Model the fold of this input.
Amino acid sequence: MSEEGIEKLIRPNLAALGGYSAAKSPQTLAKKIGIAAEKIIKLDANENPYGCSPRVNKALASYPYLSTYPDAGQSELRELLEGYTGIDAENIVAGSGSDELIDLILRLFIKPGDEVINCPPTFDMFRFSTQIGEGTLVEVPRDEDFAVSVKAVKAAITKKTKIILLASPNNPTGTLTPRQDILEILKIGLPVVVDEAYYEFSGETVAPLVKQHPNLMVPRTFSKWAGLAGLRVGYGIFPTKIARYLMAIKPPYNVNMAALVAVRESLVDVDYLMSTVKKIIAERERLFGELKKFNWLKPFPSQANFIFASVLKGEAKELQQKLQSKGILIRYFDLPYWRDGVRISVGKPEQTDALIKALQEIGEE
Ligand SMILES: *Cc1c(COP(=O)(O)O)cnc(C)c1O
Done:
C-alpha cells in the first residue's frame, strides 16, 4: 500500500489536528539564534529557575534499580503523596506529568461527540486532549479580567455536556477562581476538574472538598514548584471511585522509577523547595511592578509563577521574537482569546533585570 493509502486510514480527527505548540528547548534555540544554551534566559515554560532539590540529583546519581519496572499500583508514591497532601492514598493517582492525568480523565468520561466545557484563555492541553478523544469543545470565554463566568458556564450546559475543565490559578492568566464559584459549578452535578498545577504559588486549594464532592477532581504537578518538569510527574486528588477507575485505565508503569525517587527526595526537602517558591512569589510581585511601568504593556495580577500581559502597542508575536533574538524566551500564542498577550515566567532577580533592560531597549526602538 502507498504512503497516501496508509494516511487515509488515520483517524480523520487526528489527521486534522494541529498538535500542541510546546516551548522549544534552549538547546534547539541556541543554535538558531547563535547564543550559548547556558546564556539563554528561559521564561517560557513556568519552570522553577532554581531547579530541583539537590537531594534529587544526588539520589539519582547512585540509584541502583533503574532496570526494574516501577510499581504499577504506585503504593509508595501514593503514600508519599498522602503524607504531603493530607489526603488518603486511595484518593490519589499519579501520572507521567499531570498532562497524562488530564488525558486519562478525559478518556474516562468522553466519547466522540460528548461536550467538554472549557474556559479560555486557558491551558491548551484541555483543548488538545479533548480533540484527540473526539470530544466537542464548548468554549465559555473568561471575562475581561479573566474570571470564569459561572452564569455563562451554566448557560452552556446541554444534554451532551460531560465535564467542566478549570485551571486555578489559570494558565496563562494567573487568575484564581474563588472557592464560592467552584462550589457553585460543582452544584451543576457534572464532573469538574480544577487543575491546581500552581497550588504551591497560590496557597489556595479545593482538594479537601473531594471528600464531600464525588464529582471533583484536582490534578497537581511536581513540574512547577518542585523543579521536576523534565522527569514528568504529577498526581491528582480524586473521589475514591474515580481514582479506582483511573488506576484501572492508566498505562501500568506510567510513572518511572527516577520520578518516584525524585518525589521521595523532594518531599524530604519541602522546606528548601518552598523557600524557592517564596523567592519566586516575591520576584513575581517585583516583576509585576516593573512591567506596569511600561505604558505599552498591561500586566494582570497573578497567583502563579508567571505573569500574563497584554501588549497594547505592536504585536505580541513581534515582542516575543525581539526578546528571543536577545536570548530571552517568553511565550505568546496566536490562538483565539490569546491575541496580543504574552506570558512571562518569573525567573531569578538577575533574569528579571535582563528582561526589563531588553524591554526598555525594545520600547525605545
Ligand atoms: C504546566 C501545567 C500542567 C502540566 O504539568 P505536567 O505535570 O508537567 O504535565 C498542567 N496544568 C496546567 C494548568 C499547567 O500550567
